[in-house]
């Protein structure tokens, strides 16, 4: 059985190959990016790269005729044509005929696949938006408490997948770690109430990714208790 570290490395390697193909073929559209991911998934990374080498060879050999019909002699056109020749009709339809991009909401339309997010991230590139304010709310029970100077620190993690709309991808099953940082005064106001195991700690704070934790660090802005009577 492969561990999660191995799976992460494999996903990273596959995504790097997809990014390489996108760059070499100048395949910048959403449709082409999805097609390249499916090609790598069906043919395997090595075969996808072998076809890229053959594509370069053919385009260079036929370069003198490129001006007659530039559309047919681009790297991407030749690459996709070679891929089609190696696949059965069913697989060709799966790769080249599935819908791409935003579609009208319809129960028959498949849900966006979480594994395709790398293609979306690459398409967005540096054209990111700006967050002016952000806040996260954690509700649950604290773990072991560690005091450092005037700071109380604990780690919490989710235990159940959050229900999301059917049109969205299924969240990954592995739990997210949350490192919670509270002041001593914040903790003192809730410590007594949390002796009751049925009461819940509620932390509203500013989140940021913590690579050392491998999760989210939350700097508490408010710390309260949700009692079993008010839940």
Distance between the termini: 41 Å
Morphology: elongated
Q: Determine the structural class based on helices, strands and strand pairing.
A: alpha+beta
Any idea what the radius of gyration is?
25 Å
Percentage of residues assigned to helices: 25-40%
How many structural domains are formed by the residues? 2
Largest sheet: 6 strands, mixed
Instruction: Determine the mean pLDDT.
Output: 81
How is the largest sheet built, in terms of strand order?
Answer: 1-5-6-4-3-2
Tell me the strand percentage band: 15-25%
- Got a strand count? 6
Which residues form runs of ≥5 with pLDDT under 50?
1-9, 101-107
Task: Report on this structure.
With 231 residues, the chain is α+β, with helices and mostly antiparallel strands. The chain has two domains: 4-124, no CATH class; 136-226, Nucleic acid-binding proteins (OB fold (Dihydrolipoamide Acetyltransferase, E2P)), CATH 2.40.50.140. It contains seven helices and six strands. It has a six-stranded mixed sheet with strand order 1-5-6-4-3-2, covered by helices on one side. α2 (30-43) crosses α3 (45-61), α2 packs antiparallel against α5 (89-96) and α3 (45-61) packs across α4. The radius of gyration is 25 Å and the shape is elongated.
Features of this protein?
231 residues, alpha+beta, OB fold (Dihydrolipoamide Acetyltransferase, E2P), 2 domains, six-stranded mixed beta sheet, 7 helices, elongated, disordered N terminus
């Amino acid at each position: 059985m492969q561990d999660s570290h191995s799976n992460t490395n494999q996903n990273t390697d596959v995504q790097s190959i997809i990014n390489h193909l996108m760059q070499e073929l100048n395949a910048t559209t959403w449709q082409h990016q999805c097609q390249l991911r499916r090609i790598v998934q069906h043919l395997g990374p090595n075969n996808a790269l072998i076809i890229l080498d053959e594509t370069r060879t053919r385009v260079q050999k036929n370069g003198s005729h490129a001006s007659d019909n530039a559309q047919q002699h681009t790297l991407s056109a030749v690459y996709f044509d070679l891929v089609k020749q190696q696949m059965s009709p069913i697989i060709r339809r799966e790769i080249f005929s599935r819908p791409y991009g935003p579609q009208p909401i319809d129960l028959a339309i498949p849900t966006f696949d979480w594994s395709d997010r790398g293609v979306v991230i690459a398409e967005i590139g540096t054209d990111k938006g700006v967050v002016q304010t952000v806040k996260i709310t954690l509700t649950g029970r604290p773990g072991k408490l560690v005091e450092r100077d005037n700071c109380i620190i604990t780690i919490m993690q989710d235990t159940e997948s959050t229900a999301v709309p059917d049109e969205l991808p299924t969240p990954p099953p592995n739990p997210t770690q949350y490192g919670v940082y509270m002041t001593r005064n914040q903790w003192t106001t809730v410590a007594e109430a949390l002796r009751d195991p049925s009461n819940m700690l509620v932390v509203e704070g500013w989140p940021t990714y913590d690579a050392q934790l491998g999760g989210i660090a939350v700097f508490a802005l408010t710390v309260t208790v949700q009692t079993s009577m008010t839940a």
